[in-house]
Amino acid sequence: MRTYIQFILEIYYMNNFHFFPNRLSAKVSAALAITALVPMLSQAQNSMPTLSNPNVSVILDGYYQSEDRLMTERAEGFGLGETELALSANIDDMFYGKFTSVFESHDGESEVHLEEAFIQTMALPNGFTVRGGRFLSDIGYLNNQHSHTDSFTSRPSAYRAFLGGHYFDDGLRVSYIAPTDTYWLMGAEVFSGDSLRAADEHGERDFDSTGVYTAFTKIGGDIGVESSWQLGFSYLRNENGQLTAEDHDEDEHEEEEHAEDEHDHAHSASYTGKNTYAADFVFKWAPNGNYKYQHLTLSAEYFRVSDFMLPELHDEHEEEHEHEEEHHDEGHAKDYHEAWYVSGVYQFSPNWSAGLRYGELDSQLQHEEHFDQQELKETELSLAWHNSHFSTVRLEFSHQSNVGFEQAENDNVITLQYVMSLGAHGAHQF
Question: Which CATH number fits the domain that encloses residue 250?
C-alpha cells in the first residue's frame, strides 16, 4: 500500500508546473475572462481534461470583517476575497498548462489580476521538471498553495510583510525529486521580481529586469501509518531589494502614501532586502492514516530578511547604531527584518476543525536616513465548518498588538468567511 508521502509525490509529478505573459490590466483581464471562459464552462462536463476540454474550477471567497488588519487586502465590512477562476489541462503527452485569474474587492471596487499562467513539463527523465510563465514560487511552506486552502482567513504576518501575502511572478523553475526512500525535492527559480522591488519614490532607480533568484529544498517522510513530516529551507536573492536614502518634501507625503497603498495592493512586499532566508517544518497526524475524519497539522516558519540598505545607507546606520550603544540605548533599530509563526489545526470530526496560530514580526521602517523599529504580534483562533470537501464556513477571532505602526491600533478583529469550490480542482499540497 502506498504511503501518504508517496501519494503526495505522485500528485506533485502530475500537477506541479506552469508559463505566461505580463500582467493584463484589470478591465482587459476581466473582459477576456468573462468572454472567453463562459463557453468553456458549458463544455467541460464529465470528461477527461484535454486541451479542447480543460478542467474548469471556480473558488468563491467572501467575508465580513469587524476591523482592518495590518498589511491585508481584507478591509473592514463586507468584501470579496480571492475568488478564483482556473483552467487546467494536459496540453499533450509532454506539457501541462494552467491559467488562474483572481477577482477581489478593494476600497469598494472590484479588481482582477492574473495569478497563474504557466506550462510545465510532464515527461522529463530522472525526476526533473521545468515550469515557465507566471506561477507561485515554491519558497516556504504556504507560498505555493492558493489562499483558499489555508486554515485561517489571512496569511501570517511574515508572508504579508515580506512576500505581499503570496509571491507569484513571471519566471522559470527547474526542480528535481531525488530517487530516495525519503521525499527530497530540490529546485531553483528565476523571476522578474517586480513585486519585490524596494520603494522608488521618484521612479529614478535603474532596476534589474531579472531581479529575483530562489533556491529551495524540501525533505519529508512517514512515521508509521499515522504520521508524516516535512522540513524545508529556502533562500531568495533580490537584486532590487535594497533601500536608498529618502529625499522628499513634506508636501509629497500624502502623494507617497497613496502610491504606497497602490503598491501594497498589487501584492507587493512591504519590507524588502537583498537576502531572505526561510525555514519551515510541518507535522501531520491522523488515526490509522485516515485524514478524512480526523487529523492534526502542526506547522512553523521563520523568515529573516537582511541587507535591506545600500552600502552608503548601511554605513550611516552603523554610525548611528554605535552612537546609540555608547549611550546605552536599547531601542536601536536592527539591520534586518525577521518574522515567525507557529500554527496548530485540529480537525476533530468530518465537519469541524479548529485552529490556533501565533506570530511575530520585527521590522524596520525607514524614516529619512534612519530606521525606526516596528513590532507586530498576532494571535488567531479559528473555527471552521466543512459541509463537504467543497464548502467551508469559518469564524475567526484575531488580536493584533503592535508598536511603531502608524495609524494602527491594538485591535480585536472578528472575521466571518466562506470558501466554496465549483468544478474540478487539484489535490491540496502536503
Answer: 2.40.160.10
